[in-house]
Design a protein that fits this description.
The protein is mainly alpha-helical. The protein has two domains: 2-65 and 130-351, Up-down Bundle (Growth Hormone, Chain: A), CATH 1.20.1250; 68-123. The protein is built from 13 helices and two strands. It has helices spanning 2-32, 37-40, 42-56, 71-94, 99-119, 129-133, 135-165, 170-176, 178-195, 202-219, 228-255, 260-300, 307-340; strands spanning 350-352, 363-365. A two-stranded antiparallel ribbon has the order 1-2. Helix 7 (135-165) packs parallel to helix 12 (260-300) and helix 12 (260-300) runs antiparallel to helix 13. The radius of gyration is 22 Å and the shape is globular.
Length: 371
């Protein structure tokens, strides 16, 4: 278990370092070439990653890659999630109560419900429901997905705020996000990875999400003249310190005690919950911010003497309104982590596996680690 914690700590450090390079490189590409290069630059990285995966990674014994592809599951899950995200996007222009928006949400619910029904029947499901139904893993996926909804929306708003309101260049904006990486690396390697062998996961994840919510709460005080050093910097440090602390035990717990045949699914679900949360967060919180901005302009337009100032005030008000929602979402993430996840300190707890082919549950005992 100690080696597992060390491995996840290294993973967090590499992810944080990659994030730092990406932020600065993205700023340089946008400022000196074209924003489209932020997409082109991913191609060589993807080629190298694909080659490395093909030549280095080997399928574990009992893996699922030789099973037939679950085409209905792929189609239903993709359509359901795309429809859900598109519904949030349409709410910005058509309103939450419009027939189009409601219809998209209903269609998404139906598609995802059919997906669940199909997954419970097919021989080789895309997402075996036994992976989700284990209480601790389900809690991890739910809490991480919600936390990322809050996190990705913030990226968008802070980028807009720093460049449009504060007048930062793309390169300056990239450097302004660097404290985020410092907080993430510190939380993951110095707190999460060090304590995950000694403390029950929920006692790292719950407080971690609450610390992140505190950082987000600071950002609800954004104003046109807010100081970077006085407000944005400490908020970023708190936000990412909390996220880093929560992410390490979450990722470890999501893949612990899983059978080899479900190992790929369990780890993929961690990434999927983050990607889906990011897509939903960007669409949902941007819609909330845009609606609040429009409402602010409508209510203050009559007495405004400076239209440019009014636009800036309305944008900042919209960002702050959406960030309040992000605070609430992080609080829900913390609540899920503290209540749904019930496994004890590693080395003293029995983790329930994902079951054999007949659906029975196997128990995987975690060896006690001497401290």
């Amino acid at each position: 278990m100690r080696e597992r914690a060390k491995a996840f700590g290294i993973f967090g450090a590499i992810a944080g370092g990659g994030g730092a390079v990406g932020l600065i490189l993205g700023g340089f590409l946008t400022e000196y070439l074209n924003w489209r290069w932020t997409f082109f630059v991913n191609i060589p990285f993807a080629v190298v990653a694909a080659a490395g995966a093909y030549f280095v990674i080997r399928e574990p014994a009992g893996g699922r890659n030789r099973s037939p592809l679950d085409i209905p599951g792929v189609v239903l899950s993709t359509l359901g999630l795309v429809t859900l995200v598109y519904g949030f996007t349409r709410a910005e222009t058509d309103g939450w109560a419009s027939g189009t928006t409601i219809g998209l949400f209903v269609a998404s619910a139906v598609l995802l419900a059919v997906f669940v029904a199909v997954e419970s029947k097919v021989k080789s499901p895309l997402l075996p429901l036994r992976v989700l139904m284990e209480r601790n893993r389900g809690g991890v996926y739910a809490s991480l997905g919600l936390a990322v909804i809050a996190m990705f929306g913030l990226f968008l708003f802070l980028t807009y705020y720093l460049q449009i309101v504060k007048g930062y260049s793309p390169v300056m904006t990239g450097f302004a996000f660097l404290p985020m990486i410092a907080g993430m690396i510190t939380g993951s390697t110095q707190i999460g990875a060090r304590l995950m062998t000694r403390v029950a996961p929920r006692y790292l994840m719950g407080p971690g999400f609450l610390v992140a919510a505190l950082g987000m709460l600071l950002l609800t005080q954004l104003e046109i003249g807010s100081s970077y050093a006085g407000l944005i910097l400490p908020a970023q440090l708190l936000l990412w310190l909390g996220m880093g602390t929560a992410f390490m035990p979450a990722m470890s717990l999501a893949t612990h005690g899983i059978e080899p045949r479900d190992a790929g699914v369990a780890s993929a679900m961690v990434n999927t919950s983050q990607q889906v949360g990011g897509a939903i967060g960007t669409a949902l919180l941007n819609t909330i911010a845009a609606s609040a901005t429009t409402a602010y302009i409508t209510s203050h337009a009559a007495g405004a003497t400076n239209e440019q100032l009014l636009q800036a005030q309305a944008m900042v008000y919209g960002y702050a309104s959406a960030i309040w929602w992000a605070v609430g979402i992080l609080a829900v993430s913390a609540t899920i982590a503290l209540t749904l996840i019930n496994t004890g300190r590693p080395g003293t707890t029995t983790v329930v596996g994902s079951g054999d082919g007949a659906g029975a549950e196997d128990e995987v005992r975690i060896p006690v680690v001497a401290h």
